[in-house]
Amino acid sequence: MHNRTMKILITGTPGTGKTTIAKELADRLKLKIITNEELKTLITGKGSFGENIIDETKINNLLKKEDNYIFDSHMSQNVKNADYCFVLTCEQKELLKRMEKKGFEKGKIEKNLEAENMKECYIESLENGYKPIMINTTNKKAQETVQEILKNIKN
Question: Residue 153 falls within a domain, yes or no?
Fold first, then answer.
């Protein structure tokens, strides 16, 4: 259990393992996990590939009320005032397999592979003032990634 407030962002392209890692990390640290599912009331529209568009100002206002959380989202790097920002990455070939397994449409897969290739989540994290920690989840078990995150939190 932690003795201080802890606000952790876990971001990355869909399919990099964010939700799996966030759930295990939340369990280990006894933190509340916030996912896109829990933000459905903040949806302002749909993107060109059917993805939900959520107002970032509303997200930030909601999270201001929380002292301890892990925010798991492909757009969590846009949240303000977190203590840590972890960007999960994955090699293209493996990421493609994961997205196909999830049943993503071709256009959504192509968009997300391009986003991963361009390191969009990492760049947006930097633009929002974070010193993001990138972790490649390719060929790693969830526990290994969680251990790597915990090591970075302790340092």
Answer: no
The residue ranking higher by pLDDT, 75 or 49, is: 75
DSSP state letter for 70: E
DSSP code per residue over 24-36? HHHHHHT-EEEEG
CATH of the domain at 38: 3.40.50.300
Cross-strand bridge partners of residue 85: 9
- The string of DSSP codes covering 101-154 is HTT--HHHHHHHHHHHHTTHHHHHHHHTT---EEEE-TT--HHHHHHHHHHHHH
Q: Is the model's pTM score more than 0.90?
A: no
Q: How many domains in the chain?
A: 1
Window from 15-29, 45-59, 91-105, 115-129 with minimum mean pLDDT: 45-59
Q: Which domain holds residue 103?
A: 6-137
Q: Phi/psi class of residue 95: alpha, beta or left (left: φ > 0; alpha: ψ in -120 to 50)?
A: alpha
Q: Residues 6 or more apart from 109 whose CB is under 8 A from it?
A: 96, 99, 100
